[in-house]
Every structure is written in structure tokens, then in C-alpha cells.
Design goal:
Helices cover about 45% and strands about 15% of the residues. It is globular and about 75 Å long. The chain has about 650 residues and is α+β, with helices and mostly antiparallel strands. A hairpin with a 4-residue loop joins strand 2 and strand 3. The two termini are about 30 Å apart. It is built from 27 helices and 17 strands.
Amino acid sequence: MCGLTGFITKSKRFLKIEIDQILSNMNATNIHRGPDSQGLWSDPNSGVWLGHQRLAVIDLTSVGHQPMKSASNRYVIIFNGEIYNHLYLRRAIETARKAPKWRGHSDTETLLAAFDAWGIKSTLKKVNGMFAFAVWDKQKAILNLARDRLGEKPLYYGWQGTDDNAVFLFSSELQALRKHPIFEPKIDRSSLSLQLRYNYIPSPYSIYEGIKKLPPGSLLEVSLKQRKPKVWKYWSGAEAAQSGSRNIFIGSNVKAIDLLEKLLKDAVNKQMTSDVPLGAFLSGGVDSSTIVALMQSQSKNPVKTFTIGFDDKDYNEAVYSKSVAKHLGTDHSELYVTPEQARNVIPNLADIYDEPFSDASQIPTFLLAQLARQHVKVALSGDGGDELFCGYNRYKITENLWKRIEILPIHMRKFLGLALTSVSPNKWNKLVSILSSVMSLSTRFTNLGEKLHKGAGVITSNSVDDLYLGLVSHWQNPEAVVINGDEPPTLLTQNIPTFSGLNDIQRMMALDMLTYLPDDILTKVDRAAMSVSLETRIPFLDHRVVEFAWTLPQSMKLREGQTKWILRQVLYRHIPRSLIERPKMGFEVPIANWLRGPLREWAESLLNESRLNQEGFFYSKPIRQKWAQHLSGQRNWQYHLWSILMFQAWLEKNK
């Protein structure tokens, strides 16, 4: 895992010594992504500058140093990530008699040899990995940027400046771009609206005007002669979902389970390749337990596993992961985090996440990465299982509720929704508290008022797309909060793919795979891990696993109210069912209580009415109203407030 940055320009605004220093300054901001070595390369006559910070994982020698030139001397690459099938590609190149004289055994060298043998576009279709890279093609004087299929690794880009002084900038993180003198950090208010709705800014947008994220599965070409970037999709998640639905697996349950286990086992095996210590995150849930079980089944030594715990039982999964680790025989490390330790992370979140990001599980994710980095340099993760195997509660809501209510006339549903919201969540909760005194523990409900109000939104939805948008939105109308913040189109609004052949739940799963997975989950994991120089790998996102998962019938994923049915069957071959079966628990911290207690002063300073008005990004009235209601306990507005607070904290660091 590494950090990359660079630019192309024909500007003569700076002397060579000055522009070399600019590149060095930009590159240095990525040192946390690659502290092992630094590399700079430039060709002033062609107008290209490339910088690289290396986290050495495969071939730790200087032969793996970057920027790296191909044997033909045509290509120069800066590469972030891992190519898991690079040894297979080497053999294929050798079989075709196109292999160079190998200098080492790094996957970067393999990638360059593949470019020489087959070209960049053809190579991208052959690779199995997670990556972002920039390649300068000397022969064509073209810069190529690429990102892996599912979006595990980030890549920002965009033109800054005008006319002959224009510079095309790119980097793993935005902070590198801010180091170039030509960069204008103008906040995109439309993107800010998106962050308030989703907790993240979806690709291709970024918080800055003129800067974009390269979408997953894409190759970009740009040059000084052809300034408008050309973006080509070499793999499409939407097409994978639709293709799978047209080619449904028709074998037995046992055959499907066998094939899934074989694919996952091979994906895990490939991702365990490392020249440095390697381990895995273990929450004790279905996804991470499956990955660890398959790792341990292929390892002669105990796999190093890591989890964090909290004394608050409502947020603690450590006891479950410890049981799984004991059964599998892993070398398990756990850290029980105090509220003070967790809260101490908050001042650093703006630096860690680089762009406004407000999924509150960012805090325990960072703490877990920090724990793992004390023992290993690479950690495998169980992310992606929910999107591929129907794990989120919103899928169950659609299965259990939507089919029943959509047959009712919309005017009846709106009346029912109005009735539910006419009683405040606080009053609903008080009513339930009274009833609980005469009800058994198993029938008690927590935060029922908030759930009923959210359920009202489900009831009044016009379609499953409308339902889905409501479920994944926090601020339902961000334009009423962000001054001049018109929401741009996204895959969840105007640009919804057709998804022909997919049912309602499959549509939601596909949208999660295309949006929530890369822009929230993978962003959260990448930034947290790379802030402590830890490489993460995600076997569920091997594209062969993804494509096979989409061929499985829905009944093998959601069966009789049980999510991830087929994945559980794989897991039960390694771990007793009794260690796994329990209600799904989110990876969260008690933000709601913290905002009313130890974080109140910090939050008040960021939500101060005069401050909000002076900065001019938000209408202060709706924010102050929610803040007052939250402090009084009348409503729980933790998610809405956290999105505002994370932008405010980021703005404070990046003024």
C-alpha cells in the first residue's frame, strides 16, 4: 500500500528547482500511506512530475522502489495497492515469450511487463487486485489513471488554473493537491449537500470545485494536447449484477455452498501473500469470522486476529470475537477502549479522513487499525459481505414490510405516516417505558419513537427507489440547510441505473455495492488504516467472488428472514452455529450520549449560531433547532448533527 501524487503542465510559471520542491511537498503529505521510502521522477520537457511514498509489502528490496520504469522504457508508474494474481500474470507473459529479464518479484514490475506485453486496457481486464495507479506513457505523452473494480483505493484528480498556466493534479488524498500553489480550495456547496444526505461525498464528486474522484473500475486518459479527460469503464458493478441475474445458478444448495467456499478460500489464499507480518480484523460476526476461518484453515501458524471492545455491552462485540478466536486457535489481541480513548480520536478525524466524512463508526475503525498496526503491517477484513449476501436490515424491511404496504393507496399510507409522526419520539418512548413494566424483556423495544418516525418515511414512500433513498439519507432535505447547496445527480437520484432483471431487494443491494460500499465503507477503512500505515485487504471484493455472488438466487441469501444464508452455511463448516447466531450489531460508539455530555462544549463551539452565520455555509436555524432538541432529550439527532460537526471540524483544519 502506498501514496501517489503528481501533475502534468506546460506552465513556465515556476523554475525547475521550485517545481521540484512543489512535487516534494505534495508527496510528503502522503508519508503515512507509505513511510518506507520516497520516490520522485520528472520529465520537464514533457511536463510531467510523479511522486510516490512506499509501504513495502511485496519485495522489500530497493528493486521494488517507485516510480518504476518498464523494461521497454515506455511506461513510468506510481502504484498503490496489490495485484494478487501477479505471479500468474508473470507466467502468462513468459509463456507468450514477452517477459523481460526480471529484476525482482514485486507486483509493480509485473504490472509494467504486462503493459509492455498487452497494453494498459487489456491488462486491467486480466488483473485481480485492489489498486490505484498513475502511468505516464512516454510514447504517446499520455497520463493514465486507473482505479480497482470495487473502489478500495482512492484517486482524486482535476485541472486547476487557466490557459497556459493550467495544471492537471492527481493524488491519493486531497491534502497533497492543497500543497500545489495553483490549487484553489473552493468548497463545492453541492457536494456539501451530498455529505449531509449520505454521510459521505459520492464519486465522482469531491468537496472541492474542479476536483473529482475517479469512479471504481475506471481508466482515465489525459494529456497536455487533449485536456478533457477520457474515462473508460473496464469493469462495471451494475453490469455484473445484471449479468448475474440473467445467468442464475441452478445447481443444488450444496453445490452452491461448495463453489462459494472454493472461491472464497482461493481469494483469501491469494490475499495472504506477504513479505511482512499479516493478520485480520475479527468482530465475531459472520463476515469477519468467515475470512478468519478460511485464513486459519490454510495457515500452519495461528493467524493474528484483532478486535476492540467497549465496557458498554450495547456496543461491545469483543466477547463474541474472543469465542470465535478461541475455537479457531488464532493468536488473538483485544483492546478494551475507554470512552476517553475513543473521544480523543475526534480532534484528529479531519486529518485522518482528508475530506468531510461523518460515518461515526470511523472512530472504532481507526482504533482497530491502530491496534492491528502494533503487531502486523497487513490486515484482512470482512467488509463487502453485507452488500453481496443481503446482510443489511434495510433488505429485511423491504422483504417484510414494503410488499405489504405498497398495495395500500398512497393517501392511506400518508395518513398513517402523519398519525405516527404526530406523536413525538420522546412521548412514544415514555409510553413504551410504561408498558415495559408489564411486558417480558423479550418484547421490550429501545428507541421505538425514533424507529416509528423513520418507519413513517417507509410507509409514505412512492416506490422502492424512494424508500431506499429515504433509508440511506440523514438530512432528508439538505438544500434547506446548505446555503446555495443544490444537490447534483447521483446514482441514487437522477442517474439510477436501469438494473433490468433485478427485483426490489437486488436493486438495493446493487446500489449499495455501487455507492455505500466504495464511498462509505471502503473510504472509512482505507483512511483509518493508512493513517497508521496499515495495508488492508478485502477477500469478499475479489471480482470473481462478486460476480459469482450475483448469480446466486435471492433465496440463497435471504431465507425465512435470515440474512446471508449461504455465507452462514460456509461458515458453519468451520465454526459452530452457536458462536455466530445473534442479532446484528453495528460497529458504533455512543455519539448521542457524548454530545449531551463530554462532547457538548466542543460541539457547541462548532455549532455556535454566530459562527455558522459568519462562515456562511449553513442556515443556522434548523441546525440550532436540532441541537436544542437533542440536548433536551426530546429527539436523538446524533446522525444529523454529526454530519454538520464533521464538516465544521474539517473546515476549521482547512481554512
